[in-house]
Amino acid sequence: MNDDASKYLGIKLDRTLTYNQHLEDVKNKLKTRNNIISKLAGTSWGCRANVLRISALALVYSVAEYCAPAWERSVHTKKVDTQLNNTMRIITGCVRATNLQWLPVLSNVAPPAIRRHLSSVKLLQKINKLVNLPVYNDINNAPSKRLRSRNPIWSIENSCDSMEDMWKQHWEKGNAKNRHLISDPTQRVPGFDGPRALWTNLNRIRTEQGNCNYLLHKWKLKNSSLCDCGQIQSIKHIVEECPQTRYKGGIEGLHKGDEEAMDWLSKTNVRL
To answer: PANTHER family in the record, alphabetically (predicted)?
Structure first.
């Protein structure tokens, strides 16, 4: 047994209980599993979003959230979140530059921090009902914190908010572009069950992040940011302004994902 990081029930316990080594191991496991999920879909081909979502929850999130109440307050959780963001990008077809708030909404999977927090709250509620367990006294007669940096499980607020309420509050506080398109982030967005190519294009239009000339030029992948019509080719320009490609309903109309919107997406030559 390594004194620097002893392992108990699959969790690496380092001497200062930062869970840094454990979360590094989880990150590497998630990276491997994301590679498997990515084989199921590309930008314009592959499984539909619901298949990818179910596969991700079973293969990736199950590992990412194992024993989350023990380590969810660690400062190193970003290592896990980065990989889960990649998982959601695979589901949605979004590019790396997409605002992170959009990813859970388009994937129809609650933000990782909220899922972990609620798992801790659920565990505390369960302990408080089982008064005969030794851990009941440990939690309810816990010592006061001596260090500011320590956030033991008994220090969290026993919130009564549901996942839906917390997610809505998180969405309302954000600054994601075109966030007005989403009134309820917990609901699946239109087009979720559509073909992969249309689903990917639709999400890149919603978020205004994709392979338009303006962004490709900004990323130094193209020499010019101009459209064939002579104007700067942003995604908004393609959908709402360009005489060659514009859609009469604009971005809001496409977001609805109705038959007319899907017909425009399938016929337009633009692949974002």
So the answer is: ENDO/EXONUCLEASE/PHOSPHATASE DOMAIN-CONTAINING PROTEIN, ENDONUCLEASE_EXONUCLEASE_PHOSPHATASE DOMAIN-CONTAINING PROTEIN
